[in-house]
Amino acid sequence: MYRLTLVADLALAVRDLRKSFRTPFARKKIEALRGVTFEVQKGHIFGFVGPNGAGKTTTIRTLMGLIKPTSGSATILGRTVPSRAARERVGFLPESPYFYDYLTVPELLDLVGRLFGIPGPERKKRADELIERVGLSRARTQNLKKFSKGMLQRAGLAQALMNDPELVVLDEPMSGLDPIGRKEVRDLILSLRDAGKTVFFSTHILSDVEAITDRVAIIARGQLQASGTPAELVAQSVQAVDITIRLTGEAGDLTAGADQVRRHEDELSLSLPASADVDAWLAKAHAAGAKVISVAPRHETLEARFLREVASAEAVP
Ligand SMILES: Nc1ncnc2c1ncn2[C@@H]1O[C@H](COP(=O)(O)OP(=O)(O)OP(=O)(O)O)[C@@H](O)[C@H]1O
Ligand SMILES: [Mg+2]
Hints:
binds magnesium ion; alpha/beta; 14 strands; 10 helices; binds adenosine-5'-triphosphate; Rossmann fold; elongated
C-alpha cells in the first residue's frame, strides 16, 4: 500500500520491529516484539497501551537506541534510529526512573542540561521553570534519595523536558502517582501538545488514555492488536441501543427481545440488541401511542475493548 505521508512529517515511524531475548538461564527465546508497526503524527498525543509484559518498554527502549532490535526499523522526526540526530530532539522518561540519590532536583536538571550542551544561564532558567511546572518547588533542597515515588516521577518528567524536545517519549508517566498527580501529568501532557510538541506515552491506565490521546495503539504479546482514535476504537462496537419512551397503555410486544426493561409509571426504558431493527421498533412504539424520549447507542468502553483485545491475543497459542 502506498501512502502519501512522508517519513519526515512523522514524529515516529516504526516498521515491523522484532526483538527476541535469549536469557542465560532460560534456554527458551523470548519474543518480546513480533512485528510491531505504527506511526505517530507530529503534534499528536499517542497512547501506547498494553498489559504487563506486552512489549511497551521494549519498543520504547529500541526507539531510544538503548537496545538493538532483532529486525525492523524506526525513524524519529525523520531521522533513522539510533542516531545522535534522532536522540537530540527527544525527551525521554524511562520506566521507574533511577537517578543519583545524592543530587537535588536543580542539580539533576543542571547535569542533564550540561549533557545537552545548554549554556549556563539558559540551563538555570529552564531548570527553575520546569521545577515549578512539575510541582517540585518546595522540594528543591531535598536529595532525590528522600523523594517519594510520585516525586521521582515528577523529577523524571522535568529532566525529560530539559532539552525543550520536539517529541516527548514517556514510559508509564502516571505510574506511582495519586489521582491528583495523574491529573497534573495529564494537564502537563496537554500543555505540551498545545505548545506544538508530540507526546508518545505508554500506560495501562485506560481512563488517562481516553481523556487525552489523539490516537491509541493496543499492544499485547508483542503485537499491535488495534489502533485508532479512542472514539474509533469504541465506536466499532455498538453493543446495544438504550431507548426510553413515554407510554400510557400496555407495552405489549414492544418488550419482546428487549433487555433491561424498566417501567416507572408512564415511562418505559429498555435495551434493544445491537442487531435489532430500531426504526421498525420505533414505528411500532409510535403506533401504540408512545412518545420517544431518547434513543442512544451503547458502545463498548475502551477498557472493555482493551480487555477483549488482550484476551484474544492470549488465546493464540
Ligand atoms: N532484557 C530482557 N531480557 C529478557 N527478557 C526481557 C528483557 N526485557 C524484556 N523482556 C521480556 O520481554 C517481554 C516484554 O517486556 P516489556 O518490558 O517490554 O513489557 P511492558 O509492556 O513494558 O510491561 P510492563 O507493563 O510490565 O512495563 C516480557 O516478557 C519481558 O519479560
Ligand atoms: Mg514497561
